[in-house]
Amino acid sequence: MRETGRFAPSPTGPLHAGSLVAALASWLDVRARGPQARWLVRIEDADTERCLPGMGEHILQQLAECALLPDEPPVWQTRRTDRYEAALERLKARGLAYPCGCSRKDINEALARLGQRHERHGERVYPGTCRDGLHGKPARAWRFATEKFEADLPPTPGVPWEEKEEDGHDAGTGGELCFTDRRLGRQCQNVSREVGDFVLRRADGPWAYQLAVVVDDAEQGVTDVVRGEDLTDNTARQILLQRALGFATPSYLHTPLVRGADGDKLSKQNGATSIDTGSPSAALAALDAAARVLGLGPTTASDCPAALAGWVPEWRALYNSRP
């Protein structure tokens, strides 16, 4: 399979310093693999309530001003809803997706009854309320039955709940799903215990990130996912969905985060501002700052294309991305 990477921004605002780090890292990772590899851009606008009109086009312009040009026309999630519907139907047919009538308040109250508090920035673990039926409630979402799927995975003889994938990913033991991140090393998560059955689609329409990203990566032939470290704990969920749908699992590399003044990930919610790409010198300065976050040296180039070319061998040395 042709090596393929991608950058997949959500058009909820323009590119800021943190999102440019992810874009640069994914571009460099592909270019370090040689001319046969592909770099794609996907506009993740499935959650239409949060997306801003015209912002996808603006992000593409910012990328172009930084000389980060995709090898194929960008893909938009809102034009791919039939693929997500088909994937959900496959999961329903296997008994791995079910309707849920729980609101966030219902989940919080159920967790409180179990003596569990929801920590800020932590997962709100779904308690499995609707696994056995809605009990008169209207459906609010479709969820993925993690516990059922994990129980159906065949164990390796003599080792409880452990199987080795052909691509080297290890499912782990004791209900944990493990994978090796190219930067962070071995990562493990028991999805049913730490997350619970997660949402695939809300009843009012929007598709969940977890399902859409898995379907898109598979259809686009993505072999290497390079993205921000804040998405690391989404990976086990996505691997479960990949296996349930019969998709290959890509390799993963999660990049360092740019943090705001409060120490949290830099985002639109905590004051991240748009990067300035309005002139060649401003775009070069933004790229240079992003490269520093990734552990690359300062550029001496006079324009973005030359700077990018100079960082490719550095990236290859850091992350062993041999062509």
UniProtKB/TrEMBL annotation:
A motif ('HIGH' region) lies at residues 9-19. Keywords: Aminoacyl-tRNA synthetase, ATP-binding, Ligase, Metal-binding, Nucleotide-binding, Protein biosynthesis, Zinc. Its EC number is 6.1.1.-. The gene is gluQ. GO terms for cellular component: cytosol. Residues 153-174 are annotated as: Disordered. Its cofactor is Zn(2+). Residues 6-111, 177-277 form the Glutamyl/glutaminyl-tRNA synthetase class Ib catalytic domain. Belongs to the class-I aminoacyl-tRNA synthetase family. GluQ subfamily. InterPro entries: Glu-Q_tRNA(Asp)_Synthase (IPR022380), Glu/Gln-tRNA-synth (IPR000924), Glu/Gln-tRNA-synth_Ib_cat-dom (IPR020058), GluQ/Sye (IPR049940), Rossmann-like_a/b/a_fold (IPR014729). A motif ('KMSKS' region) lies at residues 265-269. Zn(2+) binds at residues 100, 102, 126, 130. HAMAP family: Glu_Q_tRNA_synth. Pfam families: tRNA-synt_1c (PF00749). This is Glutamyl-Q tRNA(Asp) synthetase. ATP binds at residue 268. Catalyzes the tRNA-independent activation of glutamate in presence of ATP and the subsequent transfer of glutamate onto a tRNA(Asp). Glutamate is transferred on the 2-amino-5-(4,5-dihydroxy-2-cyclopenten-1-yl) moiety of the queuosine in the wobble position of the QUC anticodon. L-glutamate binds at residues 6-10, 44, 209, 227.
